[in-house]
């Protein structure tokens, strides 16, 4: 039984690591952009709760909306630069569902 499990793990691990410099940049960009997207989604949800609670002034709401719009535009620009799509940045957040 242990031997079978060890064989499965050994088969799953590649014998060589492919260190393609172009892929390293894209992988790092994917990680960073995914984290930024996760934080952005959390901040948007918090902003909506604050708006619904009436704790923001109209000026604050306008400023937050503009900030989120600019962040989304920059994210689209960076995804295009690194050849990434929304699906590339998608994470399964368990009970919260998918990130995107």
General description of the model:
The protein has 100 residues and is mainly alpha-helical. It is 69% helix and 0% strand. It is flat. It starts with a helix and ends in an 18-residue tail after the last helix.
Spatial gap, N to C terminus? 40 Å
* Mean pLDDT across all amino acids: 82
- Helical content (DSSP H or I, runs of 4+): 55-70%
Classification by helices and strands: mainly alpha
Strand content: under 5%
Integer-rounded radius of gyration: 20 Å
- Sheet having the most strands: none
* Low-pLDDT ranges: none
Strands, total number: 0
Order of helices and strands: HHH
What general outline do the C-alpha atoms trace? Answer: flat
| Total DSSP helices | 3
Give a concise summary:
This protein is an all-alpha fold and 100 residues long.
Any key phrases for this structure?
100 residues; mainly alpha; 3 helices; flat
